[in-house]
Amino acid sequence: MHRLSRDDARRLAVRAQLLDAERPGDLVEVIEQLGSIKIDPTALIAPAEQLIPWTRIGWAYEPGHLRKAVETDRTVFEFDGSFHAASLLPAMVSLMRHRTLRAAAAQYVEANAAFRRDILARLRADGPLTAADIPDTSVVQANSESGWYGSNQVPRMLELMAVCGEVAVAGRRGRQRVWDIPDRVWPHDLPEIAPEEAERILAERRLQAYGIVRRTSPWARVGDVGEPAEVEGSTWRWRVDPAALAALDDDPGGRAAILNPYDRMLFDRPRLAELFDFAYISEQFKPKSERLYGAFAHPILIGDRFVGLLDARLDKKKENLVVTAVHELLPFDGEERAMVDAEIRELADWLGVGWPRAAE
To answer: What is the pLDDT of residues 308-342, one digit of tens each?
Structure first.
């Protein structure tokens, strides 16, 4: 049983997410450590899948690096709303091919068996294709009350086929996914892994990405991998990554970081509150009158403390990063204010725009 101070626990979490002073060298290093990067179109400043790497790498990261990694180098692949490290493919494909769909989804696929075969035939003959390039030959429509799907059944069927490993995302045209058969997207020599072993591998990689996490966290799902730990002042049962723990004394120090609201560092809200005393609530779905910090405020980390929230937006017409407010959760001293201002300036430079302090 490891016994950790709260400071050490926070440092483990920050370093596991590559948010300390030692910046990673490239995108592949980032995704290999984090395991995955969320894809989200909400882009008041920049899309999540672009800002998350920039937060780690800094000025050396360019948006084109992600497309090259996915479509040319195949060191990264897209699946289920995230970009993942290619090293996770064998384990993830194992689980895809052993997946059991929920009853309603299974019935829908069975009723549209001919439609599914039509999609596979079209992709084999003409792929890669977007959903719009594929005819809808369905005979049964899925329930679209959720609002996520329209009357065209092709996107719905493609997603169900994807989670079972029957189709794969080969790239993007703008925001539109381009689909193909897996044999033309994934390596042909993927090793066979039993589902139980695949689950263990993925749990270990999730623990690697978090550094330290509650054993029963639904966001990490680590189970009994890693080693047990206690944290000063906490009654939770923690699991810790032994490799991260062994490197804890090699401390490069902290820095300022601006986090996209879909950053993996923020997924486990209870952990944020327990270790960092940070209660983060995204206000994008709140009425404007009830917002305290802005619809899509970006948390600001200095060292191992969440000190503020950045309310800003990219004004493409005026070519400015408009900073409406920097909300100080903890009062900034002079050095901290300079660090935050420097990081905002770096962000504006990366976006290729200026930085007026507030909206006119």
So the answer is: 999 999 998 878 999 999 999 989 999 999 999 99
Burial 208-244 (b: 16+ CB within 10 A, else e): bbbbbbbbebebbebeebbeebbbeeeebebbbbeeb
Cα 244 from Cα 267, distance rounded (Å): 20
DSSP H or E stretch at residue 66: helix 64-67
Which tokens is 297 given? Answer: 């405020």
pTM exceeds cut of 0.85 = yes
Put the strands of the sheet holding 320-328 in their side by side order: 256-258, 298-302, 305-315, 320-328
- Closest among 71, 89, 80, 73 to 28, alpha carbons compared: 73
Per DSSP (E only), the strands in the chain are 2-4, 36-38, 76-79, 82-85, 129-130, 168-173, 176-180, 212-214, 227-231, 238-240, 256-258, 298-302, 305-315, 320-328
CA 85-87-90 angle, 5° bins: 115
